[in-house]
């Protein structure tokens, strides 16, 4: 899965500079100039990380961060605040609103890239890896293959993406709504039970190699992949 970065900043030159920098580093980039446009675009594409300016012309970046973190669909998306404010009190306000990191303008392209990768690694330990391995279950992103020990596990494309996402966030519980948004996209209108169907297919494929129990149902909450033996 390629990494999608969403920039929300009302300064066109900042958006262009950051977009150019991140695209050169291999990220996909979407941008918005204000909070209302950002919220509309979030209904169309779910990013892996949001770069959020503090000073926006409508809803402030801090208030938008707080709003996103209160919404089940977006609460797990990491946020880096971009701002000219450098005082400690302002940084604390941004972090208290749910931001995962804080970078003060002006910043270098190298620093921005390093901060983004650091936050993504904290959010998903598999970020930047070609192969994810948990207790002998191995998922090869480039080869698009899954192995349990020396046995290859045949998965459909949706089951592969579902397993990739869950293995990238081990021991975290995701609701059906969150999985729909992250795997199928927030602009696709399908029923929540579709998730259950694909979870069953994934478990059935993993059952012959005794890895189906890694996919756990958390009653009233959703699903998780456990990293425990």
UniProtKB/TrEMBL annotation:
One of its GO terms (cellular component) is protein-DNA complex. It comes from the Bacteria. InterPro entries: CheY-like_superfamily, OmpR/PhoB-type_DNA-bd, Sig_transdc_resp-reg_C-effctor, Sig_transdc_resp-reg_PhoB, Sig_transdc_resp-reg_receiver, WalR-like, WH-like_DNA-bd_sf. Residues 129-227 form the OmpR/PhoB-type domain. Residues 4-120 form the Response regulatory domain. GO terms for molecular function: phosphorelay response regulator activity; transcription cis-regulatory region binding. It is found in: Cytoplasm. PROSITE patterns: OMPR_PHOB, RESPONSE_REGULATORY. The modification 4-aspartylphosphate is found at residue 53. This is Phosphate regulon transcriptional regulatory protein PhoB. It comes from Candidatus Tenderia electrophaga.
């Amino acid at each position: 899965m390629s990494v999608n970065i969403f920039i929300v900043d009302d300064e066109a030159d900042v958006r262009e500079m950051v977009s150019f920098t991140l695209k050169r580093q291999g990220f996909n980039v979407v941008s918005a100039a204000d909070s209302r446009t950002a919220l509309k675009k979030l209904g169309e594409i779910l990013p892996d990380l949001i770069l959020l300016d503090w000073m926006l012309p409508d809803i402030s970046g801090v208030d938008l961060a707080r709003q996103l973190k209160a919404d089940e669909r977006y609460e797990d998306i990491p946020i880096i605040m971009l701002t000219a404010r450098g005082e400690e009190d302002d940084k604390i306000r941004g972090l208290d609103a749910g931001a995962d990191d804080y970078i003060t303008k002006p910043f270098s392209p190298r620093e921005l890239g390093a901060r983004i990768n650091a936050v993504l690694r904290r959010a998903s330990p598999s970020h930047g890896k070609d192969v994810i391995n948990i207790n002998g279950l191995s998922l090869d992103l480039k080869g698009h293959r899954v192995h349990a020990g020396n046995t290859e596990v045949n998965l459909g494309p949706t089951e592969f993406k579902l397993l990739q996402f869950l293995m990238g966030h081990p021991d975290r519980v995701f609701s059906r709504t969150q999985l729909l948004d992250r795997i199928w996209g927030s602009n696709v209108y399908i029923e929540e039970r579709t998730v259950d169907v694909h979870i069953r297919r994934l478990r059935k494929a993993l059952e012959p190699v005794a890895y189906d129990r890694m996919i756990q149902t958390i009653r009233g909450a959703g699903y998780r992949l456990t990293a425990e033996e």
